[in-house]
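Reproducibility note. Readers wishing to regenerate the assembly model reported in the main text can use the exact inputs given here. Chain order matters: entities are listed in the order in which they were concatenated for prediction.
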Amino acid sequence: MADTPKNIFLKGLWKDNPIFRQVLGICSSLAVTNLLANTLFMAVGVIFVTALSNLTVSILRNHIPNRIRMIVQVMIIASYVMIVDIVIKAVNPDIHRYIGPYVGLIITNCIIMGRAEAFASQNRPWHSFLDGLAMGLGYAFVLIAIALIREPLGFGTLLGYDLPAREIWWHQWTIMVMPPGAFFMLAIITWISRRLQITAEEEQE
Amino acid sequence: MEALQNTNFLTSLMIIFLAAGFTNNILMTRFLGMCSCLGVSKTVNTSVGLGLAVIFVTASTASLNYLVYYHVLVPLGMEFLRLITFIVVIAGFVQFIEMVIERISLKLYNALGIFLPLITVNCAILGISLFMLNKPYGFWQTFAYGLGGGFGWLLAITLIGGIRENIKERFLPKGLAGPGITLIIIGIMALAFVGFSGMIKI
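Running the prediction on these inputs yields the following structure tokens for the assembly.
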């Protein structure tokens, strides 16, 4: 565990990016990316939960009996998710109506369980916090990239505002609003980023 | 909903089952259960195994969570605790089933055993319990919804497993092999499932 904080951070953002590298947390990334505003709320929620649950699991790591650690981790995560759920409901009820169930599903988002299990239960609190933060940011970055393509093509808007000169050139890509659009976009992003990583590795050798 | 109330009880259960399985397929239109789907769908056999386990657990936990929510949390005015309660019910149930199966049939345990821990973190299960809250269902309708949701998941993952078995990954571009191509397959299949949508409203 000789990783420097900077290294941990970069790993989460790019090298071990939860979505296209570890293939975790796909479910929610697809459902909320049709509108950028939904995505931003979801991203902030996930960053908050990964960072803090990693921190908590790490602080308690020597006190949790090994046999029941999964349940304890789930409880810790669920408590933070509840906070996020209630806050989003208070701040923006409209968005909550749409992404509400998916906010609840942050609990079973495998990024968070995966990092708590793989990283936080073996590392010091400060490093775990950074790892959680970086994983959350890595997740957010892919989500926002998808949303930035889906919302303009599907609705002709960005964050709810019309694109410039929309009526002249814009034509709705219905598929971007529908679920298949999300699958295709994620596939393309996975393809591009894996390709870039493979090229980088080959150059190093 | 009016259409549902006018038909007889069993028909309404059947409609909910079909709607949850096809028109609102949980994997194709709600994106739930993707993580374990991408990991497990390499062959048909493992897909069917996990799928059966998921049907059983979704149907049981959706019903259990229904009872807990409407008969414990609502009377106590503690709806805000629903997330933590649901996940504890699911995790506890899976753990319990694991122990029961181990006692009753070692053969079944060996076949299903590796899938059970995966189920606790399968978002389809928690998802069904959460989506059920938005619908005006009674107990048996919730059961049918859970059963149908699980069945839809089994259907989707088995189809994907069948296609993936026949793909020769070495002919693909390097970056696309693995998750990339699976997502594209799912995307194309999702297009087909979108064709079902609107046929039945639940």
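We highlight two features of this model. The two ends of chain B are 7 Å apart (CA to CA). Residues 41-163 of chain B form one domain.
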